[in-house]
């Protein structure tokens, strides 16, 4: 695990409440929209990579999904999410503190039906980090499984939380995933931070052949 990155995120999650974060969504509408396009059963595994304290997990629990896996490099983020959910709802979720660029536990997952990543891939600037993300994704996702990725778009911010990011469009994401994946749908989406400032994202949905 990259301890300086872990400390960076732990510090942010330790200092702010989830609804003060510059990426907080009361309702994760674009993720919900793309999830609704996925033809999956409620008991199939959904992996949220870099879930942080995301309300997407609350949504999945409330919708009755039974095999939810929330992972993040920051255990403080995951603990805040657990706290918000409360004991009963949190017990539905499998919690994994892991670094997606040096994964230990995520590597052992299999047959993931949906890989969901909002605002994580764009922090991976080094080729070896991106390649580890990709090889892990390919290892754990099932044939016919879905990948939802949301990243800062080419018109988007160049930095977030003091870190540089790599901006994407749907073609770059498609090229990154490679020919084993079909791009099913994509859209640009402007997220507004709690401060009211806009943050342009690209959202894309892929399916593994
Ligand atoms: C901008 S936040 C987005 C959180 C969440 N996906 C959401 O939409 O609310 C980025 C998240 O990625 C996590 N993260 C950053 N680098 C990571 C890594 N190498 N492995 C796993 N998680 C990472 C951070 O801890 C943080 O929770």
Automatic annotation (TrEMBL):
Alphabetized InterPro entries for the sequence: Methyltranfer_dom, SAM-dependent_MTases_sf
Keyword Methyltransferase found: yes
Highest taxon above the source species: Archaea
Domain Methyltransferase: from-to ranges: 41-154
Record Pfam families: Methyltransf_31
Sorted UniProt keywords: Methyltransferase, Transferase
One annotated GO biological process: methylation
An annotated Gene Ontology molecular function: methyltransferase activity
PANTHER family for the chain: EEF1A LYSINE METHYLTRANSFERASE 2, PROTEIN-LYSINE N-METHYLTRANSFERASE METTL10
The protein, known as: Methyltransferase domain protein
């Amino acid at each position: 695990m990259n301890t300086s990155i872990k400390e960076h995120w732990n510090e942010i999650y330790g200092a702010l409440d989830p609804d003060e974060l510059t990426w907080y969504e009361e309702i994760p509408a674009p993720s919900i929209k793309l999830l609704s396009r996925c033809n999956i059963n409620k008991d199939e595994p959904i992996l949220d990579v870099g879930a942080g304290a995301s309300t997407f997990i609350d949504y999945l629990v409330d919708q009755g999904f039974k095999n939810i896996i929330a992972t993040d490099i920051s255990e403080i983020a995951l603990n805040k999410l657990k706290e918000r959910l409360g004991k009963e709802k949190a017990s539905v979720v499998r919690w994994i503190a892991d670094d997606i660029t040096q994964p230990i536990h995520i590597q052992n997952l299999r047959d993931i039906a949906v890989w969901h990543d909002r605002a994580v891939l764009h922090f991976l600037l080094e080729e070896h980090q991106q390649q580890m993300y990709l090889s892990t994704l390919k290892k754990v996702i099932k044939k016919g499984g879905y990948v939802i990725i949301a990243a800062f778009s080419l018109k988007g911010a160049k930095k977030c939380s003091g870190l540089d990011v790599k901006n994407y469009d749907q073609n770059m994401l498609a090229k990154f995933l490679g020919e084993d994946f079909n791009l099913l749908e994509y859209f640009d989406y402007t997220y507004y931070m709690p401060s009211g400032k806009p943050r342009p994202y690209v959202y894309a949905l892929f399916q593994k052949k």
